[in-house]
Each structure stands twice: as structure tokens, then as C-alpha cells.
Amino acid sequence: MNAGCVAMPGSFNGLCARAVAQAGFSATYVSGAATSVCAGVPDVGLLTLEHFCRVIREVADSSGLPVLADADTGFGEAEMVRRTVIDYTRAGAAGLHLEDQQFPKRCGHLDGKALVSQDHMIEKVQWAAKAAADLRDASGAPGLIICARTDARGVEGFDAAVTRAAGYVQAGAEMIFPEGLTSEAEFGQFAQALRARTGSTRVYLLANMTEFGKTPIIPQQRFAELGYDCVIYPVSLLRAAMKAVTAALESLKRDGSMASVLPAMQTRAELYSLVGYTPGVPWPAPAR
Length: 288
Fold this sequence. Notes:
- The protein is an alpha/beta fold.
- It has a single domain (6-242), classed as Phosphoenolpyruvate-binding domains (TIM Barrel), CATH 3.20.20.
- 45% of the residues lie in helices and 12% in strands.
- Strands 1-8-7-6-5-4-3-2 form an 8-stranded parallel β-sheet.
């Protein structure tokens, strides 16, 4: 996390994660929204901890990249937050983020959200940070990065988001994810206000560059200038892929063949190359 502003495209499965690594990115992200819709359900906290861990494991093993993973509201209260930290670490995550919404949660760029109390979220962050520290002490390996997401901007206002974030840093969060900011100016103001409140320039900051939401399209370099350490693109690749799937299905239904979409398809050779497979040659061990 000391390599400037890191771009983290969202990987919704192992094959997508391989493509992210092959494209030269240094990290990837597992989105709760993408994980949910890939299972055919909305992003309202319906999937289990085990389901999320399976996706994280596939993405980490396939890509060999550090993985930041969405942990929604922690799959329960404090004890489940501890289990989430342990299971995410075993699955291969390098970091996770927890959010301060009430269950059932909603997409951070939708209205009508409700928050847990600041004290309630602080307790979750404390348990997460303690679990990560225990794992670090037991193994000697770098511990899981604990990121706290606050959705307060769209519920209680900008100042409340800064106040909550400062409390989460004090509770042990190493990174803060302010969700639903609406302009470059707000991103800059949030970074300055939080670091002034905490008296630290070492609080890592995460920006969410999701499309079709409350945040305008902001380039990665601009986020770096505003003081952010990483930018996630949570559902971008899934949206692009599903748009292509829909167009291909329309062509097949209309024409009775895929002939018209062949130029847009990945070839057999390109697919084999992506998974590192040569027919007749033993497949190598995964990259990670």
C-alpha cells in the first residue's frame, strides 16, 4: 500500500482475475455487488460467508495478486466479524472492508440506507483489528488490512462521515472508504478533514469509482492528487462482460448463429493463453 494510488479492477471470478493480472494491474478487488449478482441475487446481503470466501480463493489463486475483498456488514455481529477476518485471510485476501450500514444493506449509491450507531461500528472495527493482529502475531506474515467504509455522507451528511471515519481509525482501521461522495471537491475535502482530525498522514484512503452512481467519473491520477491510496472499479468488468453477453444472445436469437459476433469473441487460442493451457502439456500450478 505504499506504491502510490493503486488501481484495483473488480474480479468477479478466477478467469476475470487472470485477465486483470495479465493486463498488468498490481492488485484486484472482490465486490459484494458483483459476487451477489453473479449468483443471480441482488446486493442486499443474501449470500453466505462461505460463498464470498470461495470467490476470494478463486480470484487470489488464479491471479496471484493482492486481493481487497468486500465483507459487507461482517456477516453478523462482532463474533462473526472476527470469523470473517480469519476466513478471509485463509481464503487469500490481503484486506477487507466493513461498512456501517444496518442489515439488510443496500448499494452505497442508492438512497434509503440506514446506519448502525457509530459505537456499534467501532466495536466491529475493534474486533476485526484484534483478529488481524492475532493472526499476524501467530504467523509472522503481514496481516489483513482492515478498511472501514462509512455510508454516512448520504444519510447523516459530510461532517458526520468524517466524524465516523475518525472514530473508526481510532478503533484500529488502517484504511477508510468514504462511500457516495459526489464530487472531486468532496473527495479532497474528506481526505484533508480526516487527516486533520486524526493527526496522521498514514491513514490510507480508498475511493470507489463505480459507474452510474453518485460519483462522477474521476481519473486515477486525480484521485492520487486528492490524497487517495487506491481506487476500486467494483462492477466495471462485469458490466462490460454482461453487455457483451446480452448483445451476443440478441444476435443468436435473431440470426440463429453467432456468426455476426465472432469478431468480438475471445478466440480459443486467446482463452487457452489466458488460463495458461497448452493442449497435450501438463497444466502448471496456479500463479499464486
